[in-house]
Automatic annotation (TrEMBL):
GO terms for cellular component: membrane. Pfam families: MFS_1 (PF07690). PANTHER family: MAJOR FACILITATOR SUPERFAMILY, MAJOR FACILITATOR SUPERFAMILY (MFS) PROFILE DOMAIN-CONTAINING PROTEIN-RELATED. It comes from Ganoderma boninense. One of its GO terms (molecular function) is transmembrane transporter activity. Residues 1-68 are annotated as: Disordered. The keyword Transmembrane helix applies. This is Major facilitator superfamily (MFS) profile domain-containing protein. Keywords: Membrane, Transmembrane, Transmembrane helix.
Length: 554
């Protein structure tokens, strides 16, 4: 982003830089090509009041004007979409792995000599120490494994997301993907249950951090007025993954070697990694400017009057961006955001309910079509296509409307855009989701054709993706520079919910049946989703203005 401060790049900074480096803070218009990313946006990287320790003049490294080609916001449209496509591909593979082995868990357990239903369930949910669990086992298996699976924690996003703000998006993203694919490949060669559980957890640690890092990349590259389409495409990847995974895993479980549930996603992840090594570029502004400053210090960049400068630093540098301090701050920041930011607290809880409901609902698809309609395992898995149609269809529609609606609302507001404009799509989402749940629950009967619950599943998918996109866009817009940490805080709780919710689904439906069970979920969706969207639409700006991290990030 381009700083709109008075001093430009290379300006000689006086002994007290705070007096001449005060940025102007205001919401940028949607037409701004490269919105502000000044030092005050940096939070821990603030430079105000930092004297020149060498006693001389400082060369301040900043963007070279509003059209600096190094600024990710000024990249070509094609380059931006290349980066967006790459991070979407990275993010897609992890949820595929999280769910693909679920239909094959019984065969894997038999091969390893495992008889405990708890351990069988943990084969899948251990990966979801950061995602949640899609368990494809019997009702008794769920009941037995409930207490064990609650112990899983979403460690990956809390570590890897913030570290991308210390070491850069590119390196952290590629490291996380390499870590994931290496341990996922190892799962195919395990000799006992203990090795499988350990390797699943370690692979999930890397895979689960990809989502938070990817969201940060989009915040770096796309200005608010163009961000809607990119986030619509990106958000679809982690939602389609749990649809594709069990659908493919079911056919592998019936016809092939169970090891292919690990080999197949690993091969795909290796292909993505190789392409990403060439096409994925660094997008985080503090890291880009830090590399530029490093080149200047090495004499690789010629400066006019270079003999007048005693130090070189970026607009983000300061004591808190020293390596040790900044890494500690980066790791702590997600917890600070959740403890202090009402935006993270409320939307994080709603996202947790939503994601938990998604994974809980995913468990009912095989239960309905195998139990009610007596379909074979592979055929029952094809009903996930209905969910995929709802997710992808609504995502494509919203992708074409998100930015258009944002621009129109900003125009009515004097050309000033606000993150709250993103939340309007939550309203149709909060209607489609409960309606779809109700129809699914009350029509899942042998005397009603299977196409009816499938059509309702399409509505559930549409409602889910509209809510997810609105929330993720709002968090990215509100916490642009620290959106990786903000998304990590939000996703921690959604991952825990996704791990726990499916475990009580069969027990709940066994006691209440599908109609009353889905009615409870529908009522909860209305009670939580409606007030949350309305609250932030009306008071979101006031809440942001009271936030240290959200006030200047937009």
């Amino acid at each position: 982003m381009v700083s709109n401060r008075a001093p430009g790049p290379g300006m000689i900074v006086p002994e007290n830089p705070a007096s001449s480096m005060a940025p102007a803070h205001e919401d940028k218009t949607p037409q701004d090509k490269a919105p502000n990313n000044s030092k005050e946006d940096a939070g821990p990287g603030d430079t105000e009041g930092i004297p020149d320790l060498a006693g001389g003049s400082t060369y301040l490294v900043d963007w070279e004007g509003p059209d600096d080609s190094e600024n990710p916001r000024n990249w070509t449209f094609g380059k931006k979409w290349m980066v967006t496509t790459m991070v979407s591909a990275y993010v897609f593979m992890s949820p595929v792995s999280s769910s693909m082995m679920a239909p094959a868990s019984a065969r894997i357990a038999a091969h390893l000599g495992v008889t405990s239903s708890t351990l069988i369930a943990l084969q899948t949910s251990m990966f979801l120490g950061g995602y949640g669990a899609l368990i494809w086992v019997s009702v008794n298996d769920y009941a037995d494994s409930l207490t064990e699976s609650v112990d899983m924690v979403a460690a990956g996003p809390l570590v890897l997301g913030p570290l991308s703000e210390a070491f850069g998006r590119q390196r952290t993203l590629q490291f996380a993907n390499f870590w994931y694919l290496a341990w996922n490949l190892g799962c195919a060669f395990v000799r006992n249950e203990q090795e499988l559980l350990l390797f699943r957890f370690l692979s999930g640690f890397g895979g689960n951090g990809l989502i938070t890092i990817g969201g940060g990349v989009l915040g770096d590259v796309w200005p608010p007025a163009q961000r809607g389409q990119a986030v619509a495409v990106y958000t679809l990847a982690p939602l389609l993954g749990p649809v594709v995974g069990p659908m493919c895993g079911a056919w592998i479980a019936e016809r092939g070697d169970w090891r292919w549930v690990f080999w197949a996603p690993t091969i795909a992840a290796v292909a993505v990694q190789l392409v990403g090594l060439y096409f994925l570029k660094e997008t985080y502004p503090p890291v880009i400017l830090a590399r530029k400053a490093k080149r200047i210090r090495r004499g690789l960049v010629d400066l006019e009057r270079s003999d007048q400068y005693t130090t070189v630093r970026t607009i983000f540098d300061g004591p808190e961006r020293e390596w040790r301090n900044f890494v500690i701050n980066a790791l702590v920041r997600p917890f600070v955001l959740f403890a202090r930011e009402p935006i993270i607290q409320l939307l994080g809880c709603y996202m947790a309910f939503m994601y938990g409901t998604l994974y809980l609902f995913l468990t009912t698809i095989p239960l309905i079509f195998r139990g009610v309609y007596d379909e074979p395992l592979g055929i029952a898995g094809l009903n996930y296509i209905a969910l995929g149609i709802g997710l992808s269809g609504a995502s494509q529609i919203s992708a074409r409307l998100l930015d258009v609606m944002y621009m129109r609302l900003a125009k009515k507001n004097g050309g000033v855009g606000k993150p709250e404009y993103r939340l309007l799509f939550m309203f149709p989402g909060t209607i489609l989701l409960p309606v779809g749940l109700l129809i699914t629950g009350w029509t899942a009967r042998p005397d009603i054709h299977w196409i009816v619950p499938d059509l309702a599943i399409v509505m559930v998918g549409a409602g889910m993706v509209l809510n997810f996109q609105a929330i993720q866009l709002y968090v990215i817009d509100a916490f642009t520079l620290h959106c990786a940490s903000a998304l990590a805080a939000v996703m921690f709780f959604r991952s825990v919910a996704a791990c726990v919710f499916p475990l009580f689904a069969p027990v709940m439906y066994s006691a209440l049946h599908y109609g009353r069970g889905d009615t409870i979920l529908a009522c909860a969706a209305i009670a939580i989703g409606g007030p949350s969207s309305l609250l932030f639409l009306l008071y979101g700006e006031r809440v942001r203005n009271a936030s240290r991290y959200a006030r200047h990030s937009y």
